[in-house]
Structures are given as C-alpha cells and as structure tokens.
Protein: Chorismate mutase domain-containing protein
Amino acid sequence: MPGMSLRSSSADTPPSTMGISTASPVRLSVTVMESVTAPPRGESRWLELLASYRRARFRLPTGAGCGCCQDGPMSEPTPPELAEIRRQIDAVDVELVDLLARRQRLVGQVVTFKRTHHLGVVDRHREDEMLVAIGETARERGLDPRVAQQVLRTIIDGFTLLEVEELGPDPEGQ
Structure:
C-alpha cells in the first residue's frame, strides 16, 4: 500500500468545513458514532433507538432482530464465563481511554508547537504515513489492519477537530 492514499477525495477540504467524510471505508463518521455511542438518557429509550437503527441499517421488519445482538434487555441471566469476558473487555476499554488521554496531552504539545511556528493544522502526508504504519503493525500482531486503520482514522479526525478549535481552520489550499 505504500504511495496509496487512504483518504477520500473530500479529505482535501479542511475538517472544520467538511465534518468527517463517510465516503472512505477508512474514515468513520463522527456524527454516526456520536448518535450510536452517546450516553443513554433513559435505558429503554436508548434500546428503542438502537433497535430502530439496527432495523433500518439491516432492513429488518419491526420486531425482528439482526441475529447478532439483543434488541432489548436479556431475558436470561448472563453466564458467568461471558460476564468475565465482558469485564475484561471493559478493563481494556478503560486502558484505551487512558491511552487517549495521554495522546490528548501530546496533541496539546503539538498545538502549542504549531501555534508558535505558525503551522497548519492538517499534515496529510503524516496522516497517510500513520495509517500505513498502523496497518502494518496490526498485521504483524494478528489484528485485521482495517480495524486498526479505522480506529486510528477516527482518532486522528477527532483530535484534528480539537486542533481546529484551538488553532482555527487551515487556509484554503493547504
């Protein structure tokens, strides 16, 4: 994949004016992610919205499930083995949040450097290098490279939006 861009053509527009593209399989939509992962206001309403999303996404009739997940509260108690696996997944999620917080502190240093040296927010070449490298690292460690690239693309997009808030959008053509 060297030399190949992992961006859609809309990526030439600064994040501040384009939002986040859904045209590329490597670029996830923050809008969709926020609506799907937003904290529930009411558990039952959240489950209804999630079920509605799944029915629309998979073109299922009302009352049908997608077969891969529950559309409502589980009717049977969770087996202890499954509960333990889920506990471990939750612990990994906390570690991921810790890593993201560490990354945010480093991005803060990047923002300070860019502000001091009057640099633009987006460095597309660096982003492409990061996506290729994370794909190779994922492959070496037995992870599907597409998953690693999608996650990194989302992280880059999220932190780029924070940089834009701090520094303002890049001038057109950069």
Notes: The domain at 104-174 is CATH 1.20.59.10 (Chorismate Mutase Domain, subunit A). Helices lie at 15-18, 30-37, 43-58, 80-117, 124-140, 145-167. The radius of gyration is 19 Å. DSSP finds six helices and no strands in the chain.
